Amino acid sequence: MISPAIIASIVFGACGLLAAAGVEFLLRALADEAGVNRWIFIAVPGLFAMLYALVLYQDARRRIKRLGESVSRGILIALMTWFSFSLLATLVWCPQRQFGQCFGHTLLAAGIVGGGPMLAAALVAGILTGVLIIRPTRKGAD
Q1: Burial class (CB in 10 A: 0-12, 13-18, 19+), 84
Q2: Rounded to an integer, what is the distance from CA 77 to the centroid of its chain?
Q3: Which of 44, 94, 110, 124 is 20 to 30 A off residue 30, Cα-Cα?
Q4: What does 77-108 look like in DSSP terms, one character per residue?
Q5: Are 136 and 84 spatial neighbours (Cβ–Cβ below 8 Å)?
Q6: Which one, of 63, 59, 60, 56, lies nearest residue 77 by Cα?
Q7: Could you tell me the pTM of the whole model?
């Protein structure tokens, strides 16, 4: 039997990659301007989402009893992913002496551009993960 944390990690990773693919043109331009391989910026949101889902869905079979609880964790994962990706982009792109100001601008830009796809991905992943965790397990074929 696969753990709920692994299920959540896979679902959120796939949805995070789909959300990043939705704004791939912008992530590619950001990576080119920063001099970083573009696949890093495209894969990182999905990897961050996988990491946070793995942590937040620990012991989920016992803790999550309603679909709304899974969706709220999904939104938290989206917020943490947005914050982490913005922090990474700021570290790669901006000079250290302007870190605070640049981080604020990066948070705003990432929220405007990627907020919609990431929120949609978080809602879909939260619902799907919740259904997979809450559904009754089958004891065997009759």
Answers
A1: middle
A2: 6
A3: 124
A4: HHHHHHHHHHHHHHHHHS-GGGHHHHHHHHHH
A5: no
A6: 56
A7: 0.85
